[in-house]
Amino acid sequence: MECNLKVCFAFKPDRNTATYFNYKQKTEDNKKSSGVVYGVTCEQCPDPSKIQYIGETSRRLRDRINSHFTSQNPSSLKDHKKETGHNSFKYLILAKEDRAAERKIIESLLINKFKPSLNKDQGIKLYVT
Fold first, then answer.
1. Can you give the three-state secondary structure of the chain, one letter per residue?
2. Does residue 124 belong to any structural domain of this protein?
3. What are the backbone dihedrals phi and psi of residue 117, each rounded to the nearest 5 degrees, phi first?
4. Residue 96 covered by a domain
5. Residue 47 bridge partners (DSSP)
6. Which residues contact 84 (CB under 8 A, 6 or more apart)?
7. pLDDT at 125
8. In percent, how much of the chain has pLDDT > 70?
9. Of 20, 24, 97, 109, which alpha carbon lies 20 to 30 A from 12's?
10. Domain count, the chain
């Protein structure tokens, strides 16, 4: 007996996907937010408005930011600071999503849209047609 099984998964967001791409610059208070997809710009680079890194975290954003620079783990932001001497980053909340799988999908969609130069990977692999 031969069995050919094809499984397809779909992601249906609770709100219009376009809202994930309409971000606005947020205040410092948002560093207390958790369950976010965030973008980072370097204010000392030639185009300080260009998002250069996109990440996601379930933790408070300020805790994740601190770990970029204090952890022994590799970090693109820490490498950028070390290589260029730049130390002026701006953090933007691009989306708020408490569910981990959905947050990772949003992160990947935003990485694909903005193509940030400091991201070492493209997030989770998405097959979008």
1. CCCCCCCCCCCCCCCCHHHHHCCCCCCHHHHHCEEEEEEEEECCCCCCCCCCEEEEEEEEHHHHHHHHHHCCCCCHHHHHHHHHCCCCEEEEEEEECCCHHHHHHHHHHHHHHHCCCCCCCCCCCCCCC
2. no
3. -70, -25
4. yes
5. none
6. 42, 44, 45
7. 78
8. 74
9. 24
10. 1
Which two three-digit tokens encode residue 107? 């992160």
Asked, for residue 10, whether it belongs to a domain, the answer is no
Structural domain for 74, as ranges: 30-114
Long-range interactions of 80-86: CB distance < 8 A, separation 24+: 80/42, 80/52, 80/118, 84/42, 84/44, 84/45, 86/42, 86/43, 86/44, 86/45
Average pLDDT rounded to a whole number, residues 32-40: 91
The enclosing domain of 36 has a CATH number of: 3.40.1440
pLDDT of residue 15: 53
Number of C-beta neighbours around residue 114 at 10 A: 18
Residue 58 inside a domain? The answer is yes
